[in-house]
Amino acid sequence: MMTYWIPQGPSMLPSNASHQVGVGGFVINDKNEVLVVQEKHCAPELFGLWKIPTGCILESEEIYTGVVREIKEETGIDTEFVEVVAFRHAHNVAFQKSDLFFVCMLRPLSEQIIVDDHEIHAAQWMPLVEFVEQPMIQSDSMFKKIIDICLERLKKRYCGLSVHQLVSKFDGRLSSLYFNTVEDPNSNCQAH
Is residue 65 situated within a structural domain? Predict the structure, then answer.
C-alpha cells in the first residue's frame, strides 16, 4: 500500500490490516460422523490429513455467516451455525499478518457432498472415532485440543459462544456479540 501524508507532522493514515480472520466448521451429523476435507494445496506434512473445512471470512462478513458459506463452498453441505467453541490467535502467519481463527460448531442441514475441485481434493462424512484417531491429530497439541473441546461440547460439558444481534448506542449499528448463558448454573450447557 503506497501512502503519503501531505501535511507536516506524523502521518495519521491507518496502517494496513494487521489481522486476517479464519473460520473452521466442526459439523457432526446424527450418525456421529464429522464432515471432513483433504485440501489440494497444503504443506507436504499435511498431505492426506482429513480435517474440518476452513477458510477466511470476507470483508464485512460475520463469523457465523462466513463459516456457513465456507462449508457450503468447499463441500456443498448446508449448515446451521450453533456456536463458536474456541478461537486461536497466532502471529506472523500469511503475509506476516496476525491470524484470528474461530472454531465453530454447526448442524448439517443436508447430507450430499459436492466437492469444490479448486481447493478441495476430497470430502466425506467420517466416523468421529476414526477422525479423532488420525496420527496427525493425536500428535499435534493444537489439533488435539481443538478436537477435545469439540468433543466436550458434544457431551454438553462445555459451552461455546452463541451469536446475539444487538444495537449499541455508541454507533447505532447492529453488531454480533458472541457469549454464552446457562439458565441453570448447575446444569450442563444446552444447545439452542
Answer: yes
